[in-house]
Design a protein that fits this description.
Blueprint (H helix, E strand, L loop, with lengths): L2 E3 L6 E2 L5 E2 L6 E2 L20 E5 L5 E5 H6 L4 E7 L4 E12 H4 L9 E6 L4 E5 L9 E6 L2 E2 L9 E3 L12 E7 L6 H4 L18
Parallel strand pairs: 1-7, 4-8, 5-14
Antiparallel strand pairs: 2-3, 5-6, 7-8, 8-11, 9-10, 9-14, 11-12, 11-13
């Protein structure tokens, strides 16, 4: 499928001579900083799997070969980290969550994302739909490295980057919102960078 580009931003000079506008409090970086809540994991693709569990307990499961057989997209998006750096026009390849949710019967309002290693983060279910989120496995034309969440991570670029869980392994759907790792430690439940929703109460 064709490339997907996040909305253009204006107001500050970018690296290509154009004007870009960053969310409040953010600064532009050319690097891709590595920030992790624990040790860097190395998950073999021959044992990797991704599981969606509905609020009724129904499981939908994909192994690595099945994920690779699904139609992929190549989104180009801007990233905004809660630690205040932003990286623009990043190139990814992966499977839209719209594809993975096609056969899932759910009326859930919330999702809790699970990673290998025990990390979790919560999002509204609607924020994973309609071309807003992907399970990505390539970055800048190369296989995604473990440091950046490889073999596969969640990518939800319209929210702060801690919502884009590294080493993703599944999603549990629910009628109730359950705080994840950072949310339980005081980070904002939603995390919209344009509203500076870094911490509870923002």
């Amino acid at each position: 499928m064709g490339g997907i580009v996040s909305p253009g931003f204006r107001g500050r000079r970018g690296t290509e001579g154009g004007e870009v506008r960053l969310p409040p409090g953010q600064y532009l970086t050319e690097d891709f900083p590595v920030l992790t809540a624990g040790p860097t994991l190395r998950v073999p693709t021959d044992t990797w799997e991704f599981v969606i569990i509905t609020e009724a307990g129904e499981k939908h499961r994909w192994d690595w070969q099945q994920l690779m057989a699904l139609p992929s997209e190549r989104p180009t998006v801007d990233l905004h980290c809660v630690t205040k750096w932003s990286k623009l026009h990043t190139d990814w390849q992966g499977v839209s969550l719209d594809v993975l949710f096609e056969g899932v019967d759910t009326g859930a309002d919330y999702a809790l994302v699970h990673s290998y290693g025990g990390y979790t983060t919560n999002l509204p279910y609607e924020d994973l739909r309609n071309g807003q989120a992907w399970i990505v496995y390539r970055f800048d034309g190369e296989d995604l490295t473990p440091e950046h969440g490889g073999p596969a991570r969640l990518l939800v670029p319209h929210l702060y980057l801690w919502k884009s869980a590294k080493w993703v392994r599944g999603i549990t759907l629910s009628d109730e919102d359950t705080p994840g790792f950072w949310e339980s430690a005081g980070y904002h439940d939603y995390g919209d960078p344009w509203r500076e929703q870094r911490y509870q109460g923002d």
